[in-house]
Each structure stands twice: as C-alpha cells, then as structure tokens.
C-alpha cells in the first residue's frame, strides 16, 4: 500500500513523489552588460501581502522578504488584505496600505543584506484587475519625493479614490451587461478583449466609479493597475500598463495591442487619456529608477524599471511555460495557465497577451471546485485518508469503465454550473457510484474539464507538450498519473515558491539584457528563453500510459457533451 510520508500528511492531496528523470539545466552565467554580482528584484503586490525576491545572474535566489497586510499593518483593518463591503459584493483595499508596505519591505530587504547597488533592474507582479486612481497633481508629487521621508507620508493624498477596487469584487454586474450590449454581445467582447465581461475586470470597475463618484473620476489624472502602480512608485512617474495584465480589463484589443475605443467609450468618458498608452512589448524596460530610490536606498541611478505585470502572467513566466505546455495549479481552487499561439476567446475563461512574448497569448482558467471537492470525497469514500483515496483511484481502471461525473459542489465558474451529475457507461443519469468509481469519476471529471476548457480557448497539445503540476495535490503520484493520462502528456513538477516574484525577476533580467543587447546593435540576441536558460530544471513525475489516447479520447467527447447539456439546462 502506498504510504504518504509524515511531512505531507497534513497537506491537501498529499503523497510521495519520485523524480526519476531531470531535464539538465543550461550552465549560463553573466550575459552582455552584467557583472558577476549583478542582481534583479521581483516584487509581488499580491492580495494578502507584498513580497520581494532577488536573484543573481545565475538565477539563484539570494534574498526574500514579505510584509503581511493584516498582521503588520493592522491600522488598515483588512481581512486577508481586503476590506469587504456590507453588500457582500464590494471588495477594496487602500492603495496607501500597499505604499506603506513598500516602505517596510524595502527596510526588510536592506536588513536581510541585499545590496541595492547590485540591482541592475527590477520588475514586479500585482494582483490582477485591481486599480489605483491617482488624483490630479499626483505625478508631480511622485517626481518630487524627498528621500528623507517615507513614501506613505508623501503619497497620503495622492489618490482620488482611497479604496481601490480589487479582483474579489463582484458588484458590477450592471456595468458588465451594459458593456457587452454596447460592443455587440459577450462573444464579440471576448473576441476583442479575450474575455466576456467579468465583474472584477477593471473597465467595469471604472464604469461603476464614474457612475457612482463622478467628482472623484473627474479629479483623476491617471488610472493604474496594481502592477503599473508598483512600477510608477519606482519610476517616480506614471508607468504604462503591461499588455498581459492589461488583458484583464475588458478594454484592451489583445490582437492590436491597443485600447479598444468602443470599450473605453462604453465604460467612461476620457478613459484613454487616463490609462495612457499600454507598454509595447513583454518585459519592457520603462526607464531608470527615480532619484528618490538612489538617494534613499543606494540603488544605482541606471537601475532599470521593467514593466510590472499581473500575478498570474508573472507566475507563467516564473514557471517558464512554452507554447504547448500547460501549468496546473492544484490548490483550494484549481487554476490552469497555458501558452497559446492561436487563441480562440470563448465565453468561459480568459485569453491574455503572453507576459513573455507579446506575439503569443496565455489562457487562464479558474476552477472553483478544486482541492476542497477532492477532500470532500476523500472524507466520504476513503475515511479521510489520502492513501485509501489513492488505493480506490487505482482500483478503478483508467476511463472508469465509461462512468463519468461532474462534481460542482460549489457554484462553478468554469463553466457556470452547480450540482453533482453522474452518468453510467450507457450515458444514463445515476444517483450514486460505488466508492472506487466515485473517486475516479471525481478526479477524471475535474481533469477532463481542464483539458476541455483549455482546448476551447485554443490550447493545442503537441508532441512536445508538458503538463507542469504545482500546488498541494501535485505531491500525489496517483493523481498525477491521471493528469498524464487525461492530457496524454508527461507531467513535471517544480517546487517554485513565489513563482510570481520569480517570474518578475526573470522579466527584469529580460528587459535589462535585451536593452543592453539592442544598444550593442544585436536586437534579437536576447529572448525570455535565453535569460532563463539556467533556471532550476523541472522534475519528470510520470508519463502517460500507452493507451491513454484510446481511453480518454472518446471519454473527453462525452464529458464535453455532458457539460454542454448541464450548462444549457441551468
Ligand atoms: C485572476 C484573478 C486572481 C487575481 C489574484 O483573474 O482574479 O487570480 O489575479 O491575485
């Protein structure tokens, strides 16, 4: 019987992992324009904390620090880094809290021994969709920051809206429907911007602010995303919005890399000038760090600020996903990222411009029913034991002799649906399965959903495709074998903590080295792949069974049809 090691006993979907094969890492050191001691920083303005990580030019992590909003900045009375409105729909966070956290984080990095004079460039990630509204005159304040004072003392009154809407907000349904109607329907909006209208997407949030607080909107000279807000603090002037993070606004034409005038008009007047032009490419060097930073922290005056991106795009960069690869984050809810060459925006899921190559795209899918659903069936069928759960999973054959199920215990978002629905091999609805069939139906159903929805957005599995599994459940080999079989692709694991910070640090290196190469007349010498060639290798966890395609090909078609039928009924 498979025994989970003690250290994983508490972790969701835990199990033991062998790493039978490793992909060798390229052995690269300093590149053009780098010294042996050159360092890069990646920040992450995430929901619950502000984090930073520094790497050297061998891509080794040399320093990490973080500031937890609830615990270290209790004066803002956030819960999980956010303030919930009384309506249960509105979620905000004070931008000045993020500024104060940055003051604290910089001191922590200094105390941790990071020599800022080594830093050739920095970049960052931000929680997606949230926005910061800068009051008229704020850029002048940014440009005149005094190095002997904290940032938060100087930026206290820089915002026209104190509480920034964030991604958890779902109070803008009316604005979403209005935007879809204005542009010609949800699929038309998805074709332009990569997603149908979503409540948390920034255009809809701005429309609500314009409608409910017209004076504040009028008094706003610039609107940043959390990501470009971070970059603006370091540049000491407004930073453009990154194309990948900008794809989460329902405003960007993801094919043309420009704001769509129709979408802008539908949301608020004068919006284009308040957003500024998006940055033109991935890992774009925006300019040198502001004087404040050189004087207060000893950064070199030519330290580059590379456009900050969204946390999900930065994670895709941190995992170094290639076209045809798919990353599966198996956590409380499950998330899928994939690289796409030819996207097909759909009514479910999101297509963003790729954070590492603006000619490509990434898919993002969030599945609400992840680990908690698996745990529920572990408790129900396996007495709370992952070992027993894995045993049951192995008892039922791949393909479950034709039994399939959809387990939307929580109202699912990919697709929109709820309830538990079982079908036997003949396609007839059944009330219950025996334990091993149930366990396999849960796992296979969840994984088939991921493949079906990724493919609906244009994801194509190829000969070279890899599935990269992260999160608690990626330590469970029985589950990973089902992943390999359903995707008919090898599964790799990678223990990257802070993949968003790491991805941001890689993007900092990309921006810096590419601009050094361009200055030397060699514009094409540096790509995201070349600057990350020395990164830690992935570990091969398992290969698909030889008959995987034969088993799952027809089952995937049945699963797709079942979901479509259920969505149509609901
Ligand atoms: C993605 C999303 C969240 C936030 C969390 O669309 O809303 O993943 O980016 O930080």
Molecular structure report:
The chain is an alpha+beta fold and 570 residues long. The strands form 6 sheets. Strands 1-25-24-23-16-17-19-18 form an 8-stranded mixed sheet, with helices on both faces. Strands 2, 3, 4, 7, 13, 14 and 15 form a 7-stranded mixed sheet that branches. α14 crosses α19, α15 (371-382) runs antiparallel to α17 (435-456) and α16 (386-395) crosses α17. The two termini are 42 Å apart. It has 21 helices and 25 strands. The chain has 2 domains: 1-30 and 322-494 and 538-570, 2-Layer Sandwich (Nucleotidyltransferase, domain 5); 31-168 and 220-261 and 268-316, ATPase, nucleotide binding domain (Nucleotidyltransferase, domain 5), CATH 3.30.420. Mean pLDDT is 93; it is low at 1-27. A hairpin with a 3-residue loop joins β2 (39-45) and β3 (49-56).
In short:
This protein is of the alpha+beta class.
